[in-house]
Amino acid sequence: MKVLVIILLLLCCVSPLKAVTIESCPLAIGSLLKTEVEETVTLTCKTDAGIEPSNSELQWFRNGARVNLAQENRQSRSNLCVQSVKKEDNGVVFTCQLKGDASVNGSIKFDVHYPPDLNDTKEVFVEEKDDVVLSCDVRANPPVALVWKRDGKVLDLTTGRYKATNNGITAELSIRKAERDVHQGTYVCEVTSSVYGVVSRTFTVTVEDRVLKFPVGPTIAGVVVVLCTIVLALISRRDKIIKCCKRN
What we know:
The chain is of the alpha+beta class. The protein has 2 domains: 15-113, Immunoglobulins (Immunoglobulin-like, Sandwich); 120-208, Immunoglobulins (Immunoglobulin-like), CATH 2.60.40.10. It has 4 helices and 16 strands. The protein has helices at residues 2-13, 180-183, 216-236, 238-247; strands at residues 20-25, 32-36, 41-47, 58-62, 65-67, 77-82, 93-98, 101-113, 120-127, 132-137, 145-150, 153-154, 162-166, 170-175, 185-193, 197-208. Strand 7 (93-98) and strand 8 form a beta hairpin. It is elongated.
């Protein structure tokens, strides 16, 4: 009985727990909020009953950088609106905290879904024996699976002087020393998304005859040298030239 009394007395002496909570639209799952590009997200931060009104001023931070809000939007309840969500907002963390006690805070992380920027066609012209690079923007969330095709078939990257690279942002197919019989055709950068399905970019590659390029620079330099030589020769023989002109 004495132990129970002591516990009750201790509970009475303990201050209410201080906390802030964040509500969102659309709803977050825990501290993760899934949204898409161009959508609008509203975040609402509230103080709990354990926080006195005089100490209830709130602050918002975006990845640690202070977000400036009107004074009337800081007391006990604070709203933050993110309009037209962008790709760059993926992974961003918004934190709401008490101005007077940074340890009392809550955070929410953005998980922005967006497809790769594809679905177009490009014409590519390359001279024989020149190198060419086909490039696709494959940046997406969630990440996509990529395959290169040529004339409707999956491209064999082990033959034909092909090299493929993919850093998660840009995928490239390099063709070294292009030949008409080997490399001319229709190439497709095809990506598959678990959310957005299949999208692609098509490249129509035309291998042209090699054009003999006229060496403009060296030719101009040669002409200048010849003209300078002629001028110097005329100057060195001007006396003879003048005498010949007078005789004539």
